[in-house]
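User: Please predict the structure of the protein below. I'd like the answer in structure-token form so I can feed it into my own downstream comparison script.

Assistant: Understood. Taking the following sequence of 196 residues as input:
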Amino acid sequence: MNIDELKNTWNEDIGNETPEINTEQRHKINLPLEKVRKNMRMEFWWVVGIFIFAFMVCSVCRPFKLQLYITVLIASMLIVTVFFYSKFFKLYNNISNTELKTNDSLKDLMTQLNLNKQYYLSYYISFAPFIVCEILIVLEFIPWPQPLSETKIALILIGSVIGGLFLLFFSGKFWFHHYYGRYINHIESLLKELKR
């Protein structure tokens, strides 16, 4: 075989592996992608608003020690949020710039969406330590009619962690499905249609 024959064989193989997606199918895929982008923007601005509100509440907390603890806690939450939102922002840019012309590009998009599902759940679960810190602050600064025993404090902390983890996990799953999951499922069904 000479080099020209190898090039032709190579080009034929590449062309066979990546079939084109027609314009109608692209429009069907772009509609759920636009919904995902819209929900990502909306969720981002909600989070910005929540943090602004939280820092405003911190500014009026007294005594100073309580204000300091809550401010540090919320600043730590903000750092975790910035980390995860940098991942979400990367997906947002990829969705916005995606040229869905082949099945391979659609499969790549699905991989990114599924990876971000894991990021989303990890984001919610990463707030478990913050629940512990919040409970410690509440136990420290709320005046109790009688001092709490060590057993009660331990039960409150353990119960808060277990309850908080379940609440965070299920709320993360619920919000992901509500904002993104149904659109991702729609894209997956379109991908299955294209394989036929």
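That's the full token string. Residues 66 and 184 are 43 Å apart (CA to CA).
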